[in-house]
Structures are given as C-alpha cells and as structure tokens.
Amino acid sequence: MPEYVERRTFTGDTPTARWIGWRNLEGFPKWIRKSDYPRCPARGHIPDMLLQFEVDKARLGMAIVSCFIADREPALMRAPPGRLGC
After folding, report:
1. pLDDT over 60 at 84, yes or no
2. Long-range contacts of range 38-41, CB-CB < 8 Å, 24 or more positions apart?
3. Distance (Å, rounded) from C-alpha 29 to C-alpha 8?
4. What is the 3-state secondary structure (H, E, C) of 51-70?
5. DSSP codes of every residue in 14-81
C-alpha cells in the first residue's frame, strides 16, 4: 500500500485515491462523507469485507477494514493521517 499512497492524492478538488465501494455508488455514500477523505470517490461494488481486504492488498484502492485484520497485514497501511476509525 505505500506505493498506492505515494502515487495518489487524497485531498483537493480532484483526488486520485479511490475507495473500494460497498454498495450503491451513486454520489458519495454517507460512510465516505464521514471519512477523513470525503472527496475521494468509490469504485467497484464489493460487499464482502474479506474480498475488499484482498482488493486493498492488490493496491486497487482503499478500504475500511477491521483493524484486527488489516493491522496484521504488512502489505497494508493506514491511509494518512492514519485515523480512519480504530
């Protein structure tokens, strides 16, 4: 994930970072609006947390994954500033 973070912008008018989506992607769902990165759009429709975890490991976007799972995976890191809910 460090490569994903280094090559993406998370703020500004047109951030290049993308959330891995849960459900309906019309507009910005409430969980995105309440995140540290409310302007980053979601892509995909992956309603399974473990599959999102695998997509996140593949560096295809960022996901909200339970800390007890994600913190043990060296390929992942918390998106800066690292305060996404744990």
Report:
1. no
2. 39/11, 39/12, 39/13, 39/15, 40/10, 40/15
3. 21
4. HHHHHHHCCCCECCCCHHHH
5. S----EEP-S--SS--HHHHTSS-TTSPEES----HHHHHHHHHTTS-B----HHHHTT-TT--PPTT
What pLDDT, in 10s, does the model give residues 28-69? 677 777 888 888 888 888 888 888 889 888 888 888 888 888
- What is the spatial distance between Cα 45 and Cα 73, in angstroms, rounded to a whole number? 23
Higher pLDDT, 72 or 23: 72
Residue 86 is predicted with a pLDDT of 41
| Residue 71 tokens, joined | 């913190």
pTM for this structure?
A: 0.73
State the Cα–Cα distance between residues 67 and 70, nearest whole angstrom: 5
What's the whole-number average pLDDT of the chain? 80
**Per the structure block, which two tokens stand in for 7?**
């090559």
